[in-house]
Amino acid sequence: MMWSVASGDQWICILGSSTRSITLGHQLSAYYDLTHGITLALIMPRWLKYIKDDESLPLFRKLGLYAFMLDPMLSSQIIANN
Fold first, then answer.
1. Digit-coded pLDDT (tens) for 18-46
2. Is 64 left (phi over 0), alpha (psi -120 to 50) or beta?
């Protein structure tokens, strides 16, 4: 489990500033008495959609291929949308 956290944090930092989503996750955890993992599961998909642009597509492709084992034959745009 600890490896998963470290690996996830590494990919988040590669894609951009992770402190905004992590800080918001902590605030939601405290306010709504939710675990940090649940708040990140709610925030991360929306945050990744927000930061996605043409420049970040290769990074989203790497994330999709290596972290989620998506089909390498898919285009970067399709991978980024999944």
1. 567 777 888 888 899 988 888 888 888 88
2. alpha
Supply 61's token pair: 């492709």
Cα(36)–Cα(19) distance, integer angstroms: 14
Residue listed under structure tokens 């996830």: 8
- Are 15 and 53 a contacting pair, CB within 8 Å? no
Classified as helix, coil or strand, 17 is: coil
Least confident among 21-25, 49-53, 60-64: 21-25
Cα 65 from Cα 54, distance rounded (Å): 17
Asked if residue 64 lies in contact with residue 77, where contact means CB atoms within 8 angstroms, the answer is no
Please give the pLDDT value at position 71: 92
The structure tokens 């898919």 sit at: 74
